[in-house]
């Protein structure tokens, strides 16, 4: 009995220590009213995002250092990493800040000095003049972006690319330039940016399970390829809002934070565009004296110093300006200087709304008169550029759930789906440039949208991508259409027609 009691006490102490360690890095929570924002205004803000932005995945709002609202659209969740795409660039810039602080390089160092073995035979004067500062500000002097796929992007391909403009005089968004920052940090520290940031940024902020892809040489991609959770993005933004200070410790000098987030170069003159307000060190300036890191299809770390607020967003939208417009229209005016009186009814309504967010499942019937004839049948396609050999919709529970089984180039892909609920699985995801993922967690739903058509919707819930598969059955034939919510190229693949296999 005494021995069991000792174990119980030790277990409680260990659990308490772990909780304290976790809470030491987690952002504290608060009611909106305590931080000067009404719950009803936040509810209106969240509803606007849900209704106006197709493809919201997760949001966390921080005011005065405290989380006042957080929610994820099922099947996305707080515990899941999310692909950041170019929001990764702000993390790479942070690694450069650490390296500069530690005296390992200067932003005025010439780029070519780090890569003598990769230099072209006759480097141009503009290439020779390019400095680390120019990489940070996207003003390398390139007219066109060098190669950025993981199989091509490297120092050699970057340095071989023409530099027609004097560095520092021409803004050109340039993912390869961010890769070069990553490569430089690895040169001067002996570690990838990913490993270099672990003890300096990830661990202090409690970013527990980051993932960062590399190029063919094992160098962190820098400009994209990082995955973290929504709250990790919020903590990162809060570190910058606090001028590099985290829980009483100065992780990065305030002077670096100021430089990185200030307008270093001009990038346009449209006063209504948040992409024309100037660029810092891998951070965009915004309207309303805000700044942000952002990534393709709506990955945001928005820092609002005047409101003492940070907003972290993951999404899969093709209209990134629309997301910011909703923030300016709905959230910005809701931030008040003083605490507000508690409103328990509105707080409860907001909490309920945030807990019920969901990527809409496929709408339609649970079954069809054709189901018995077409389920569990294999349909074969003639040779095609998509390399799709066959498809079948399988069910072992009389159509309560289905699994879309596709054969690509001899390899089977299985996508599970439930009716009005998500079923989980794993599958490769091939979305073209910068979007080739060998194994992704997925969640799918299905419905018969017409008596002869079944639609299957699959969310790859660590990515921005939702995939729609429509199979229309007619006699012994099937017509397959596939499209995505977002893509770097065409969202819709060519229609294919297959025939039932004997």
Features:
502 residues; alpha+beta; Lipocalin; nine-stranded mixed barrel; 13 helices; 21 strands; globular
Q: What do these coordinates show?
A:
The chain has helices at residues 2-25, 39-52, 88-101, 125-129, 132-136, 155-160, 175-189, 193-205, 230-241, 254-261, 320-331, 344-355, 371-374, and strands at residues 56-63, 66-72, 82-83, 211-212, 226-228, 245-246, 249-250, 284-285, 291-295, 299-304, 309-315, 379-380, 388-394, 401-408, 411-419, 423-430, 436-450, 453-460, 466-474, 477-484, 496-500. 43% of the residues are buried. The strands form 4 sheets. A 9-stranded mixed beta barrel has the order 12-13-14-15-17-18-19-20-21. It has a 6-stranded antiparallel β-sheet with strand order 2-1-11-10-9-8, sandwiched between helices. Strands 3-5-4 form a 3-stranded antiparallel β-sheet. It is an alpha+beta fold. Helix 2 (39-52) packs antiparallel against helix 11 (320-331), helix 2 (39-52) runs parallel beside helix 12 (344-355) and helix 3 runs parallel beside helix 7 (175-189). The longest helix has 24 residues, at 2-25. Helices cover 29% and strands 25% of the residues. A hairpin with a 2-residue loop joins strand 14 (401-408) and strand 15 (411-419). It is globular and about 70 Å long. It contains 13 helices and 21 strands. The protein folds into 2 domains: 33-354, DD-peptidase/beta-lactamase superfamily (Beta-lactamase); 371-500, Calycin beta-barrel core domain (Lipocalin, Beta Barrel).
